[in-house]
Specification:
Shape: rod-shaped
Distance between the termini: 78 Å
Largest sheet: none
Radius of gyration: 21 Å
Number of domains: 1
Structural class: mainly alpha
Strand content: under 5%
Number of helices: 4
Length: 87
């Protein structure tokens, strides 16, 4: 029987499938994990709300970037308002 695969490795494999567009067949060959096992892992992430830890991390980074963009735009808007009222 094969040894258990560490959670970090599972997350990396699932991320490559979900985020990078790697096919299940290709991931199976690359990581030496059966396609059925990969399908079970994918189903488990869907059953758990469909959000893997790598996806949550990606969404948090994206959320932070969007907040920074909004902050920059608000500052630019205020600066423009001040310039208009001074004219």
């Amino acid at each position: 029987m094969a040894s258990p695969i560490p959670q970090e490795v599972k997350a990396k494999i699932l991320s490559s499938i979900k985020d990078d567009g790697v096919s299940i067949a290709q991931a199976s060959t690359t990581y030496n994990v059966t396609e059925e096992t990969l399908r079970k892992w994918l189903r488990a992430t869907i059953d758990n709300g469909g959000t893997s830890s790598s996806e949550i991390q990606r969404l948090r980074r994206e959320n932070q970037q969007l907040k920074e963009i909004i902050g920059t735009l608000l500052l630019e808007k205020e600066a423009t308002k001040k310039n208009i009222t001074r004219s």
